[in-house]
Amino acid sequence: MEKLLQYSFTGLSAGALYALVALGIVLIYRSTRVLNFAHGDVAMLSTFAAFALLSNGYGFPLALAGSLVVGAALGISFYLSVLARAQREGANLLGMVALTLGLALILQGVAVYIWGAEPVSLPFPISSTKTYRVGVVVVSQLALATMAAGIVGSLLLYLLVQKTRFGLAMRATSENLMAAQTLGIPTRLVLSVSWGVASALGVVAGIFLAPALLLDPFFMLDPFLKGFAAAVLGGLNSLPGAVVGALILGVAESLTGGYLTIQYKNTLAFIIIIVVLLVRPEGLLGKEFKERV
Amino acid sequence: MGGLLEVKALALHFGGITALQDVGLAIAEGETLAVIGPNGSGKTSLFNCITGIYRPSSGSISFLEESLVGRSPDAITQLGVARTFQNLRLFHNMSVLDNLMVGRHLHFRKNFVHAALRLRAEEIRHRRRCEEIIEFLNLEPVRKSRAADCPYGVQKRVELGRALATEPKLLLLDEPVSGLTQEEKEEFSYWIHEIRGRFRITILLVEHDLRVASRLADRMVALDHGVKIAEGTPAEVQRHPEVIKAYLGE
After folding, report:
1. Which of A1, A48, A199, A266 is deepest in the core (most CB within 10 A)?
2. Is B94 in contact with A171 (Cβ distance < 8 A)?
3. Which chain B residues in 162-201 lie under 8 Å from chain A, judged by CB atoms?
4. How far is A179 from chain B (nearest CA, A)?
5. Is B202 helix (H, G, I), strand (E, B) or coil?
């Protein structure tokens, strides 16, 4: 029983980070119908930006803010300068997905060029060895902070999308671009902000993952795949689905790692996804957008 | 002239296909103009050019003396042009009220201080405008329903209401009564008529139903194969030999 609680907690804390990654993927998919394969690498490069700021003696809050700005700027400028233009020239969705893959490779190249491929450790103010005992469960300071980051990030996104006028414009744009335009919503602005917000969410995940994983130009690949899987599990166009999918994935992974063997951690997690998708192809909370013809 | 909207020598080509050719029309403020014509005659293409969805191959479109050619659809809406679609384009997963609130988007003051202080006055002002439209279009019973769950006739009303919520100077209605029952058509015609009186909006409408069109419009323009074949009062246009030929064949 103690073990079960312990593993579940560890899983939830990993799931919170997957949720941040998944939310970014879903936000972009919902608004532009593009699967952003550069999502992890935008976060990776921005985490390196934080690393650079920290190594130059700036404080952690400034480094965090700086990396968020870098991430958002990368997302927005990629959308405006590449994707929007490709769309105007009539690129199809698959072509645009390929463009995001290209961006991912470019960003990895840039990171290798500047910082090298050797893993470095990000000086992080929150300790992963300092632990607290809550009832029977032992939690590390880092795991708590990670969870807090996941909850705060998801909550802020929820408030933005559901409770603000800009969120209304975002929902309108993602549901029916043409109708939103004819109602006077500047859809290009709305979409670029969506890319910025989504990228910033990924950066938060990157910053909190770096201390546990060490920082190298490929460190976001695994978390990105997990976030993607979580998004698919939850239903690619559902924001709550992304969170639910991520938490299930995190816990499933942790339980397999704990009870079976650490080697099957990823395998079993993906088997669960396959099974869920066979039963519910639209994902747990997904609804396919249908257009009336 | 001094028209609200003036379209001159408008042409639209898709590859080798000509959708519109040398189309010209003008609407004076307060007028209702109907565009009629058989299927594929270019009526909706004309609308799409005016609202910025298509970019015309040549010709000019001016609204309040400003050119609309090359402007984005949202910029055109900001100048005061609203439209409905032939095949509805509602936000299906939003409530009826939220659909109308999206239409209010333009009129939200872009001021973060107000938003931060949560001054409700602004919100209330928008709500009031929406309530007025809800009452006018008799949408009260469905205000909280999801748009997708409403019957077709109601959805058409929601779309009309959403266009009204942008407070347009010119309203473009693309086949407003298509797919409605006879009774609903009567109701809808009444509302369109009322829009003129109550909101003082100039209306350009595309309509298949000639009876409805001639009842609502001051003037009519007939298109066939992308070319204007007649213009005048509803009675004149319907008697025009070219129009009869277009509708009935030789």
Report:
1. A199
2. yes
3. 162-163, 166
4. 6
5. strand
- Of B77, B88, B98, which is closest to A183 when you measure between CB atoms? B77
Burial pattern A226-264, b for ≥16 Cβ within 10 A else e, equals: bbbbbbbbbbbbbbebbbbbbbbbbbbbbbbbbeeeeee
Return d(Cα A205, Cα A227) in angstroms, integer.
10
A138 φ/ψ sector (left φ>0, alpha ψ -120 to 50, else beta)? beta
Residue B101 touches chain A, beta carbons under 8 Å = yes
Q: How far, in Å, CA of A21 to CA of A10, rounded?
A: 17
Mean pLDDT by 10 residues, chain B (250 residues): 84 90 93 90 92 93 93 92 91 91 75 59 79 92 93 93 93 92 92 90 90 91 92 91 83
Q: Determine the pLDDT at residue A8.
A: 92
CA distance B89 to chain A (A): 6
The structural domains of chain A, ordered by start, are 2-279 (1.10.3470)
- Please tell me whether residue A176 adopts helix, strand or coil conformation: coil
Indicate the pairing of strand B81-83 with strand B66-67: unpaired
Q: In terms of CA atoms, which chain A residue is nearest residue B76?
A: A184
Q: Tell me the pLDDT band of A290, cut-offs 50, 70 and 90.
A: very low
Distance CA A220, CA A199 (A): 13
The answer, yes or no, to whether ipTM is higher than 0.90 is no
**DSSP state for residue A80 in the 8-state scheme:** I
Rounded Cα distance, B115 and A58, in Å: 33
Is there a contact between A249 and A287 (Cβ–Cβ < 8 Å)?
no
Domains and CATH numbers, chain B: 1-80+170-250 (3.40.50.300), 90-167 (no CATH)
Cβ pair B166:A183 closer than 8 A? yes
Q: Which of B51, B87, B105 sits opposite A185 (nearest CB)?
A: B105
Size of interface A-B (CB pairs under 8 A): 75
Cβ separation B90–A165 shorter than 8 A: no
Per-residue confidence (pLDDT) for residue B248, from 0 to 100: 79
Shortest Cα distance, chain B CAs vs residue A38, angstroms? 29
Which chain A residues touch B106 with a CB distance below 8 Å? 183-184
